[in-house]
Please model this.
Amino acid sequence: MLLSAYEQGLFPWYNEDDPIYWHSPDPRLLIFPDSLHVSKTMRKILKKEKFIITINKNFDEVIKACAQTFRPDQGGTWITDDMIQAYNDLHMLGWAYSAEARINERLVGGCYGIRIGNVFFGESMFSLTPNASKAAFISLAQKLFKDGAAFIDCQLPTPHLESLGGVQISRNEYLKLLKETLTPQE
Model:
């Protein structure tokens, strides 16, 4: 059901005690290979290897940290135990990816999402120290784009994601682009 929802431009987003609500915002925020912005500060942080960045080393730890992160503009989390299990199952099947930022052995930031074909659907990120989630996200984005991803669906516009190169497009444009990107070319 989750994979089908993403293919249709929907994603789950609700509070813990609510029924599942499928969301399709207008506008939609995307990051393309040529729009990804890595600031001078982040280039220095990545070059100095302030964080140990890994991909898919501990998906469960990342999604649980995302669920536990307080977000002042939200009344709770949709990342319930059932959703954690569903995304962990998708990870075991090769659909869900995570990026982890560590200092020494301690997880201090990360992000996760779903990849279907050449589209990556970013879901959530967290940071326990400045720039940790950015370092994880940028590293994952660079890997995804190197591996042929056409764009990253960041879902909702935020100043944080816009600073990383997010571009707003209308829902209609997004749905058309999603269909074109997911449809195999002959």
About this structure: Strands lie at 11-12, 22-23, 28-31, 52-55, 96-103, 106-116, 119-127, 151-155, 167-169. The first strand starts at residue 11 and ends at 12.
